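WP5 quarterly update. Target: Leucine-rich repeat-containing protein 40. Source organism: Hondaea fermentalgiana. Length: 281 aa.
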Amino acid sequence: MIEQDTRKIKEILQDEEDERRDVFLARRSAEFPMGSIRSVLCRAQSVDAMANLVNLSLYGNNLVSLGGIEALKRCESLRSIDIGNNKLTSLSEGFAELTSLEELVADDNAFVEVPSELASLRNLEVLRLSGNRIERFAEACEAHGCWPKLRELSLDNNELTALPSMIGTLGALETLVLRGNKLQSLPEELASLQSLTSLSLSSNQLKTFLPGPLVPQLKALEVLLLNGNELSEIPAELAELAPCRVNLANNRLETIPQGLKESLSDLNVFGQKKVKSKTKN
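Structure tokens (predicted):
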């Protein structure tokens, strides 16, 4: 549920009893001329009024530009911004100056790449870019050492065909959501994510998973969703992820490694033509 303040923006900024730690400006596109925040939130008077700002929601305002947003770097307590459900194709250069941000929700816009400005936000813990048109990571975001604190990365329902090797450097990552892309293979570096507890890869075009010897490195994994791909075989080493819950429904599997079902807490292989247990050699 998106929280919304029913007062006009002017009223919110002038209310002397409001500390304005949480400023929820969802679904009020009429108050943002030309789909821009510059004249509304980025003037010195407005920024001064939001000196205590922690959480800002700009959800669902038909925004096409975040020009001037660097003014909010003066809001030193700012931790979270929601710019979901707008019409953004890029972030303004000034967004890179919001280095205190720990959470960014940018779902349901029109980004075609993971924006380069995000590479500067080294305090990010949650990054959500679901439901865009993302085909790639900007070059700046492929640098190793980017986002050392990131715990959740959601890129579901985009147009990704591959992942950069830097994905393996996100050592704090616990949740990775890549459902509904066009991934055909995975970088071996993915196995380096030893804090990862949930990995969603359903509804892609994967023909293989990770090489068997690398699979046990995902030692913290509790949920692995691979349903709706094109897998014809799976590594026996998945059994070493016990007690992980694994969904392999609606693939092209003909066999599953013997003992896999007994090792995992839950194994779903529904929707295969014929599945037989494969005896170890």
